[in-house]
Amino acid sequence: MEALLHQLLAGLATGGIYASVALALVMIYQSTRHVNFAQGEMAMFSTYLAWVLIQAGLPYWWAFVATVALSFALGALVEIAVIRPVRNAPVLSVVVVFIGLLVIFHSLAGWLFGYTIKQFPSPFPSDAWYGSTYMSPHEIGAIAVTLSVMALLFLFFRFTPLGLAMRAAAENPVSSRLVGINVSRMLMLGWGLAGAVGAIGGMMVAPVVFLDPHMMSGVLIYAFAGALIGGIDNPAGAVLGGFIVGVLENLIGTYVVGTELKLSVALVLIVLVLSVRPSGLLGRTIVTKV
């Protein structure tokens, strides 16, 4: 029973990391109706920026804040320079652009920082009082960070004029333009926020999987599965789905298929959700009259 409890809680910890990346995926999808396949590589690149700042002598939390700001700017720049010109292009063209971004960020990270695995520090001391035999301080801290980010985003989108404008631009761009909302600027801010949220997820996962250009490849698949399970158009559903995937991956991978086939759990979940309930647990089913 103790081993089962440990696997369950460890799954919640990794699920918190998947939830962060899933949240970034949902934010992009809400704005553009496209899945950003480069989200994991952008988060990885942002984590390298944090590592450079820490190696330069900046305290962790100052490096954390600076990385979030830089990642926001990076996400906004990608939207302006790469996504905006192909906004009205066919879906297949946009998918190719996202794949191109994935390859670019992956190759750029390897070129600038090398492919040697590096250690990334955890902001949570290993002997912190909130640690236990079932969950390490970093695992508990990662969950707390994910839930805090979700709460801040909820308050931002629900109670601030800018957040409401961003929601309106994502829901109905035409009507938003008619009432004076700059839709292009809102989309740019959405990409910036997604970049910042993805960077937080990258900094939380790096102490666990270590830092290298390949570190987010599997995480992105788990996060995508979480976003689909919870609802690709629902931020709260993405967080819930991330936790569900983390728990299922840990339990099934440990007790059923083995660690070598853990990634297949996410792929099976993606197929099941798309087959049974494409809108996800908390997603909306959109019916179009023709």
From TrEMBL:
Q: How does it sit in the membrane?
A: Multi-pass membrane protein
Q: Which Pfam families match?
A: BPD_transp_2
| Transmembrane parts of this sequence | 6-28, 60-82, 94-117, 137-157, 186-209, 215-232, 239-257, 263-283
Principal localization reads: membrane
Family matches, as CDD domains = TM_PBP1_LivH_like
What terms describe the molecular function in GO for this protein? Answer: transmembrane transporter activity
Mind naming one GO cellular-component term on file for this protein?
plasma membrane
Q: Name one GO biological process term.
A: amino acid transport
Subcellular localization, per the record? Cell membrane
Please name the InterPro entries in this protein's record.
Answer: ABC_transp_permease, BCAA_transport_permease
Q: Which UniProt keywords apply?
A: Amino-acid transport, Cell membrane, Membrane, Transmembrane, Transmembrane helix, Transport
Q: Which family does it belong to?
A: Belongs to the binding-protein-dependent transport system permease family. LivHM subfamily.
PANTHER family of this UniProt entry?
A: ABC TRANSPORTER PERMEASE PROTEIN, BRANCHED-CHAIN AMINO ACID TRANSPORT SYSTEM PERMEASE PROTEIN LIVH
Q: What is this protein called?
A: Branched-chain amino acid ABC transporter permease
Organism, as annotated: Noviherbaspirillum pedocola
